[in-house]
Amino acid sequence: MLVFLVHIRDPQFYAMPAAERAKNGNIRIMGFPPIGIMALSAVLKRAGHECVMFDQANPETPNNVIIDSIRCQRPALVGLSFLSTTSYPYAKILARQIRVADSEVKLAFGGVFVTLSAELVKRQCPEVDFVCRGDGEQLILDLVERLDHPESVDGITWAKDGEVVSNRNRVLDRNLDQWPFPDRESLKLDFVESMPLDVPAVLSMERFTTMQTSRGCPWPCVFCDIPIFNEGKWRSRSPAHVIAEFQHLQELGYGSVYFVDDHFLLQPKRIEAICDGIEQNAINVQWGCEGRVDSVVQHLFPTMARANCRTLMFGVESGSQKILDRLKKEQTLAEVETAVNNAKRGGIEIVHGFFVVGNPDENIEDIRVTFDFAARLRLDTFGFNRLCVYRGTPLWHEYVTRGLVDDAKDWFKYFKCTEIDPTCLPGEVVHLERARGFRRLFVYKLTHYPIQTFTLIRRFTRFMRLRDVIYLIVKPFLGERRGPTKAETLSQAVEHASMKSETAGQQSRRGSTLVPSKTRS
Ligand code: B12
Ligand code: SF4
Asked: Cys bridge to 183: 42, 225, 426, 504, which one at CB 3.0-4.6 A?
């Protein structure tokens, strides 16, 4: 059976580094590869099916090209995969366009966002036949076998005799080693490794990809829906399976990999075994991962550094204990400091801190202490995003109870907390304090950690255009662009009809332009 898989992107989250192609002729994209559809493609192909993937980051495959290919090749199923609220409007537009072009082809949606709102998605987007919930590997195999009799396919939401029905949930599969490595080679794209900063900062021009060695996280942070998506469980692949994938990547010429695990730093024995495997098998692929600051594996940071772990990212969130407690982060400022120091002492080259501002109950002083705290930490890089609330998270439930969001009307919208929660500072104030904080942070870093700062800037200048490096440095001094992004506007619109044609036109025009990235806001 022929299956098409499309990764729907929000254009804010990738960029084209330069007009040139990689040596192998592939187009270069600055961003993460679509590992969700790559995982499903590998599974389908191993089972004897044919699979064609499209990534919307590829300027050569805009919607009209995908639709033409559907008309020509007549796949039995087209699966659209996307991560979140901000890409949902683009997914709906494509689904509607496909349905207009082909009334027969079966359409499926999958990913975290649709998993958590499956029935609502099915009702709002009736063009889609199946909304797929949870892990997709076994689900897609079952679905292609029973496209015309989906009653017995666990984990799907569909319409039976005009009624939306949800088949029972899949039992969470703990055996992740059973699945083949993602199909990274069929998509003719090469990904460039960059940091999630306000300007995409290129780390290396090595062939870059992502890997998932574990799934889930059992902590209760109020803004996060990973625990819900994974039923509060953490599941992992065995070290031997991870090492085999490293070897496979090395053979394919990849030089750098980032783990998209929610919390890699969980099990000391497993991490030790992975690091040993890397050394014993002379694997020289560099890697990066993220985890919590209260991790019990910190004594292994030197081992990880020796095994080519170059980047470690921590969810620091705030420099105010009051805010950490409000977010139910279950970590202390002392733990943050210890983890960052341990990582740097252990020899990790780039230690990154994710921060959020615009939190509930946050005052100006909390933002100031957060930037001062960030300045004092030995972090190499930082990201300061505004807190957003997503359906399914504990914060969303709280906002429903407090009457700040209406679950029936607002479930698909994108909200910064500052826009809806009166206990947050106004958005303008957060903007201003963030710009001020960045300036103080930068000056502090230059004067107190000059070697660390210059080493990092030197790394960026090796791979980035000078213009981009200068922008990266001066942007905090320029202040913020005000107002919502196009994606935010799209996802906030109650009915997308008026924007549909405009966005569709823009998607097809993207074929010839180089998209400057704005990255996360
Ligand atoms: C890496 C990552 C990113 C990367 C991009 C990755 C990429 N490929 O482009 C970047 C940094 C760009 C990013 C950005 C954002 N992200 Co993000 N991201 C992740 C992260 C950590 C891993 C995603 C991943 O690679 N998973 C591994 C693959 C294998 O899993 P998967 O894609 O879910 O696919 C599996 C199933 O979902 C299913 N499946 C998927 N598609 C389909 C399709 C079909 C047909 C079927 C049958 C099955 C199926 O099968 C797959 C295999 O089991 C997740 C957390 C997580 N664990 O999911 C957050 C996560 C998805 N992101 C999230 C958010 C909020 C965002 C942003 C909106 C953040 C922001 N405010 O700016 C943006 C939006 C991006 C966009 N719209 O394009 C939230 C989503 C919450 C929600 N309910 O919407 C998550 C869950 C994080 C969290 N803690 O809450 N993200
Ligand atoms: S520790 Fe990270 S992944 Fe786990 S619940 Fe909190 S934010 Fe989500």
From this structure: 42
Q: Indicate the top mutation candidate among 83, 228, 389 to test ligand 1's pocket, ranked by most ligand atoms within 8 A of CB.
A: 83
Residue 322 makes CB contacts below 8 A (sequence gap 6+) with 361, 366
Tens digit of pLDDT for each residue in 180-203?
Answer: 999 999 999 999 888 766 566 788
How far is it, in rounded angstroms, from Cα 382 to Cα 164? 44
d(CA 97, CA 83): 20
The one-character DSSP state at 102 is -
Q: What is the pLDDT of residue 518?
A: 30
Q: What is the pLDDT of residue 475?
A: 73
Ligand closest to 55 (CA) is 1
Residue owning the nearest CA to atom 8 of ligand 2: 224
Separation CA 213–CA 239 (nearest Å): 9
For residue 457, the SS3 value is helix
**What DSSP element (H or E) covers 139?**
helix 137-145
What stretches in the chain show pLDDT beneath 70?
17-20, 196-200, 476-521
Chain-centroid distance of CA 89 in Å reads 17
Residue 442's nearest CA partner among 480, 472, 484 is 472
What's the pLDDT at 494? Answer: 42
- What is the 3-state secondary structure of 204-255? EEEEEEEECCEECCCCCCCCCCHHHHCCCCCEECCHHHHHHHHHHHHHCCCC
Phi and psi at residue 66, to the nearest 5°: -60, -45
Q: Is 185 exposed, middle or buried (0-12, 13-18, 19+ CB in 10 A)?
A: exposed
What confidence score (pLDDT) does residue 235 get?
A: 97
- Tokens 């029972």 map to which residue? 168
Task: Give the pLDDT confidence score for residue 199 in this predicted structure.
Answer: 63
Three-state secondary-structure class, residue 429: helix
- DSSP-derived letter for residue 300 is G
Residue with tokens 């090492």: 243
The answer to whether 385 and 521 are in contact (CB under 8 A) is yes
Nearest ligand 2 atom to the CA of 292 is: 1
385/368 Cα distance (integer angstroms): 15
Alpha helices in 358-485 (DSSP H): 364-376, 394-401, 407-410, 417-420, 427-448, 450-463, 466-478
Residue 112: CB within 6 Å of ligand 1?
yes
Q: 260: CA distance to ligand 1 center in Å? A: 9
Ligand at shortest distance from the CA of 229:
1
- Under DSSP, is residue 313 helix (H, G, I), strand (E, B) or coil? strand
Sign of CA dihedral 220, 222, 227, 228: positive
Cα–Cα distance, 335 to 292 (Å, whole number): 10
Work out whether strand 130-132 and strand 106-110 pair parallel, antiparallel, or are unpaired.
parallel
